[in-house]
Amino acid sequence: MDLNYGPQYEDFKKEVQSFCNEYKDLRFVDSSQSPLASDGKGKHGPELTRADWQKLLIERGYFARSVPKEYGGYGGDPDIIKSRIIATEFSKAKVPSGMGGQGIDMLVPTLLELGTEEQKQKYIMPTLHGEMIWCQGYSEPNAGSDLASLQTKGELIDDEWVINGQKIWTSTAQYAQMMFCLVRTEPDASKHGGISYLLIPMDTPGIEIRPLVDMTLKAGFNEVFFTDVKIPATNIVGNRGDGWAVANATLSHERGSLADPNATMNRVNMLIDLMKEESIDGKKLIDIPVYRDKLMALQGKVVAFQSHSLRTLSSKINPGQDVKLGKMIQKLVGTELRHELEGFAIDIMGEIGTLYEQSPLLRDGGSWQFIYMYFLGLIIGGGTSQIQKNIISERGLGMPREPKVKDS
Amino acid sequence: MYFGLSEDQEFFQENIKKFLDDNASVDIIRKIATDQPELQKDIQGGLISLGINNLLVPEEYGGLGLDILFAVAVSQALGSGIAPTAFVGSYVMAPIAILNGGSEDQKKIYLSDIASGKINFAVGFSEFIGAREDCEIVYDNGKLNGRSIFVLDSNNASHIMVADKSGKIFITTMDSKGLTRNHLTTVDKTRSFSEVIFKDVEVELLEKSKDAISPIQKSIDAGRVALAADTLGAAQEMINKAVEYSKERKQFGRVIGSFQAVKHMCAEMAADLEPCYAMVWHAAHCLDEEEEESRFMSCHSKAHTAEVGKAVAKKATEVHGGMGFTDLLGLHYWFKRIGVNRQLLGAPEMVREEAAKIQKLI
Ligand SMILES: Cc1cc2nc3c(=O)[nH]c(=O)nc-3n(C[C@H](O)[C@H](O)[C@H](O)COP(=O)(O)OP(=O)(O)OC[C@H]3O[C@@H](n4cnc5c(N)ncnc54)[C@H](O)[C@@H]3O)c2cc1C
After folding, report:
1. Which residues, listed in sequence order, are joined to residue B205 by a DSSP beta bridge?
2. CA A101, CA A107: separation in Å to the nearest integer?
3. A160 is a catalytic site residue
4. Distance (Å) from the C-alpha of residue A92 to the closest C-alpha of chain B?
5. Given a cut of 60, is residue B153 above it in pLDDT?
6. Is residue A403 assigned to a domain?
7. pLDDT exceeds 70 at position A256
């Protein structure tokens, strides 16, 4: 066991700390579409637009660190420890990290791994700069957990893909310029072998977007309809019929990013502050033993999950260290834990915990209710908790698959 | 940066597991639990020849001079094989208490004798953690009076260390005049617990524990993490057994491991237990190298692993159906080991309250 990153990282850590110190009171002058983004309201530090902040982060190497310069990244060597130091220090200082979203988190890594040179040139830079928003067109009304049964059809006619069908639950489609999309292009091939990964400009004629209001009352996702949508034949990542493998490369990126233990620990600390301030029947919440015990139990779980993330980090830099099962549990444990934590905060606030939107008496901007619901979405999205348990038991523990039902 | 056990630590674990596989089968454990308790001595003797007694004794006193993480890795292996041996009290808590609380002379005498296998300590700190009404330990003028309950590793111990309410630690031999030991029967028959009654027993005070609380605290923290590791090992073994069984047992014409209800129980156990590895190792590492975090981490490890252990013990038993409930299979020895670990040195609620105190939330 050696938790020191080594002396070569000491300077780097100091550099990041001093940057964080400089920008800890950063205030954004524009709004964000991301519901979890902070805007630094009430802070009196440097004022920036989100786009300028993003560019500054890339310039300093605190974002898109290992993405080559020619594609708009910082162009540093991949260094997991440096990435970790950046994430930890930003989180400690509560300085907003760069933009997220499906383009940055999922598409960029996929293109870097599997895209053509032309695709990398064209898409990565504007995506990193937040100028090109992407949405993920995977799920369909009849293809959710059983994603590979998707039926949206793509036919190659005269150098163009002609797409017909429907996607659903497509987050951010209403703002997106582009969609990465799974489409059935080889109707005669097997279920998994007939899918291709296409890149679709959202302003192409024939696309209709209908927002769907989700339980948080924000229109988080959409239905997207395709009627004879035509895109160039070159807008494909990987070969025809390889879409399933390409998509799986990105799904693992998504699952890893859904539940950051440091963010969860920050919420534990916010909860402690809340419990020190808020009182009921003349008693501070923190002084009520039942509440305090539950708080400690939750904190214990988060501590375990934080230590666990150090172990999975270690496996990335120490070849041969096996934490296969450890990685498989992350989405399940991380999303369930966060949901539980946010829900506990609501419970101990009593009736006040139900307040929402712009209500008087609202605490912490209503974030406990909002994130409580938002994380239920994350428990379902990106492979439900039940699907995660299937994966853990089958691939992690080697238990047998369910017998196949005939003609499905 | 490397977060995990070293090759040496894993190798040591393998040796212990192999020894226990060869020498402490469920049949042997059952004999120890029922009519041949004396067989326990052979197993403990074998483990001592592997070196479990001198891990934490510094080299200058003839020990291996290893760190707490090493001892915790060993504890994990002992837990997975529900080893019927003294360990957490005699070879983790006692040497740490002496190392931190003993004078130079005391260290020389006692640590050397622990390392050579000449003596072994029972540990009775119940007066300091979770004291009971009628058990007060009182020290006056070299003499000790009172009662210590749940003395750990007392079975074949030659010596005993006892704490009073203030955290002072006293040492004497088990055969001292005025000392009586009564065996306490718990559900866990793989380890022994006693109540020890003192009537004007002559004792020696561990010198530095006289006005410092840190010797006993460090000993308890390490003991808690070692118990968490024992639970971790035992719970992992229960999951392994459940998964294995589910791949063999057939009902409704298919193996039960293909039923999703069973698969999900196993997945939940694995998902709950997996982070405990990192947590327990991290806590041990803090005890070795990051003093400020160590009390916080050891409380949380003890409490959280106890909760997970309890859930795993239940589900793994359920996966075995009626067979899980029988003595035939012996799964219940693991269930009970985990159950007793949970209560020792502070059950979860108590330890969590301590975690809150450490953060000044109380
Ligand atoms: C907030 C949010 C954002 C989303 N964003 C996107 C997006 O941007 N792009 C996109 O393509 N999709 C998106 N999704 C869709 C998401 O991936 C699907 O909702 C998810 O995969 C589940 O599919 P489903 O909704 O059809 O549910 P179903 O598959 O119908 O599942 C219903 C229930 O059945 C269970 N179930 C299904 N199959 C099994 C099985 N084999 N074993 C055990 N239980 C099973 C499920 O666990 C669930 O409890 C989003 C979803 C949410 C909630």
Report:
1. B170
2. 9
3. no
4. 17
5. yes
6. no
7. no
Hey, are the CB atoms on B353 and A296 less than 8 Å from each other? yes
* Mean pLDDT within A309-319: 92
CB B84 within 8 Å of CB B32:
yes
Among A222, A245, A268, the domain boundary falls at A245
| Average pLDDT along chain A | 93
Check if A384 contacts B (Cβ < 8 Å). Answer: no
Residues enclosing ligand 1, CB less than 6 A?
Answer: A 135-139, 144-145, 169-171, 220-221, 377, 380-384, 386-387, 390
Average pLDDT score over residue span B90-115: 98
Tens-place pLDDT, residues B253-278 = 999 999 999 999 999 999 999 999 99
Interface of A with B in 301-320 (CB under 8 A): 301, 303-305, 307-311, 313-315, 317-318
Nearest to B123 by CA among B178, B53, B174: B174
Identify whether residues A263 and A383 lie together within a single domain.
Answer: yes
- Say which CATH class B214-358 falls into: mainly alpha
Which residues 210-239 of A are in CB contact (within 8 Å) with B?
none
pLDDT in tens, A257-288: 667 898 899 999 999 999 999 999 999 999 99
Q: Let me know if residue A306 belongs to a domain.
A: yes
Identify which of A12, A260, A306, A299 has the alpha carbon closest to the alpha carbon of residue B3: A306
In the reported structure, the alpha carbon of residue A233 is separated from the centroid of ligand 1 by a whole-number distance in angstroms of 30
Atom of ligand 1 nearest to the CA of A143: 26
**A269 at the B interface (CB within 8 A)?**
no
Provide long-range contacts, Cβ within 8 A and 24+ apart, for A207-213. Answer: A209/A173, A209/A174, A211/A174, A212/A168, A212/A169
Give the bridge partners for B103, in sequence order: none
> In CATH, which superfamily holds the domain spanning B121-210?
Butyryl-CoA Dehydrogenase, subunit A, domain 2 (2.40.110.10)
- The stretches of B141-259 forming alpha helices (DSSP H) are 214-248
- Select from A321, A336, A397, A401 the residue whose CB has the most chain B CBs within 10 Å, as the one to mutate to test that interface: A397
**Nearest Cβ partner of B274 from A4, A325, A402?**
A325
> Is the domain B7-116 a CATH 1.10.540.10 member?
yes
A223, A254, A340, A394: which one is catalytic?
A: A254
pLDDT in tens, B172-231: 999 999 999 999 999 999 999 999 999 999 999 999 999 999 999 999 999 999 999 999
The interface pTM score, or ipTM, of the predicted complex is: 0.96
* Token pair 């979890």 in the structure block, residue: A36
CB contact B281 to A (< 8 Å): yes
Q: What's the total number of domains in chain A?
A: 3
Domain of residue A194, residue span = 108-124+133-245
Structural tokens at position B149: 């309950």
Cα–Cα distance list, A389 to A383, A394, A406, B232, B269 (Å): 10, 8, 23, 21, 10
pTM listed for this prediction: 0.95
B10 contact A CB<8A:
no
Which residue minimizes the CA distance to atom 44 of ligand 1? Answer: A386
